[in-house]
Design brief:
326 residues, alpha/beta, TIM Barrel, 8 strands, schiff base, EC 4.1.2.4
Length: 326
């Protein structure tokens, strides 16, 4: 009953104060965000735990593995990244298993802004998106002018998607209008590129803050809300993702606009990925079971999905050196 009551409360709030009115001032934004229904922490964790135990039949597992592969943002965000490493990652994105053409391509390759041009050239015409972190990743502690310039440069170099990180210090201090303005400015700078807003949920402390930050990002124009940079622990968790999925579901009911969700960091096995797909289906619904609306930020997950896929097809696992290491 809790999610249903929460949805009614949110919709009632928006009936009284239209979306445009909510963001007119710091006071109205604060009033709206703090008027959102509180998250039942015990209930959210219990529901996520229950959904994670769902039994998946073999045929459904085959479908889920291919769907998960198609949702991956294959990621390398290390100081030692080189153009050669990015080209190799792009080749894997295009042909995850060179011996099996039926394996779907991943959704995107995510790199630092200075390597966007390399990825864009390698993926040109393939349909695999180029995503780039920007805006002072991973801390978000830089000026708005730098964040805007960072975004414009990434898009000019060929980024189809920009993953921006919010200033958690500003959010936790209650400076909601500052965070809103930064997201809206970066959204404008991104132009036609999709904007994924990273909340860094491991630093937000409470599920209530996760819900508020999700709504704040969506009100400011986010195309996706994303859990984590992968640089902070904990990163993605099932309960946090469930709360974010409830938020995007309720936001679409209220506004008519659909927003995607991207958990990132710590999702390493096929079993983990399938748990997330179950939570998506049971919380937001089938409309979000699509790479356009759900992504998984990962580097090592793809190999495990490929191993499990081959196990289902042949009855045996590939050797440890069968697939390339990322």
């Amino acid at each position: 009953m809790a999610p249903r009551l929460g949805k009614v409360t949110v919709l009632s709030a928006l009936d009284d104060a239209h979306l445009a009115d909510v963001t007119t001032s710091e006071a109205s934004l604060r009033r709206f965000l703090h008027g959102l229904p509180g998250v039942d922490e015990v209930g959210a964790e219990a529901r996520a735990a229950g959904l994670s135990t769902r039994s998946i039949k073999t045929t459904a597992k085959q479908f889920a593995i291919d769907l998960a592969i198609s949702m991956i943002d294959l990621t390398t965000l290390e100081g030692q990244d080189t153009p050669g490493k990015v080209r190799a990652l792009c080749a894997k994105a295009l042909r995850p298993d060179p011996t099996d053409r039926d394996v779907p391509r991943v959704a995107a390759v995510c790199v630092y802004p200075d390597l966007v041009g390399v990825a864009a050239e390698a993926l040109a015409g393939s349909g695999v998106k180029v995503a780039s972190v920007a805006t002072g990743f991973p801390s978000g502690r830089t000026s708005l002018a730098v964040k805007e310039a960072d975004t414009r440069e990434a898009v000019a170099a060929g980024a189809d998607e920009v993953d921006m990180v919010i200033d958690r210090g500003a959010f936790l201090a209650g400076h909601y209008r500052q965070v809103f303005d930064e997201i809206a400015t970066v959204k404008q700078a991104a132009g036609a590129a999709h904007l994924k807003v990273i909340l860094e949920t491991g630093e937000l402390a409470t599920y209530d803050n996760v819900r508020r930050a999700s709504w704040l990002a969506m009100l400011a124009g986010a195309d996706f809300v994303k859990t984590s940079t992968g640089k902070v622990s904990p990163a993605a968790t099932l309960p946090v993702t469930l709360v974010m999925l409830e938020a995007v579901r309720d936001f679409r009911d209220a506004s008519g606009r659909q927003v995607g969700v991207k958990p990132a960091g710590g999702i390493r096995t096929s079993k983990d990925a399938i748990k997330y797909l179950v939570v998506v289906n049971e919380t937001a619904g089938e409309d979000w079971l699509d790479p356009d609306w759900f992504r998984i930020g990962a580097s090592s997950l793809l190999n495990d999905l490929l191993m499990q896929r081959q196990k289902l097809a042949t009855g045996r696992y590939a050797g440890p050196d069968y697939f390339t290491l990322d």
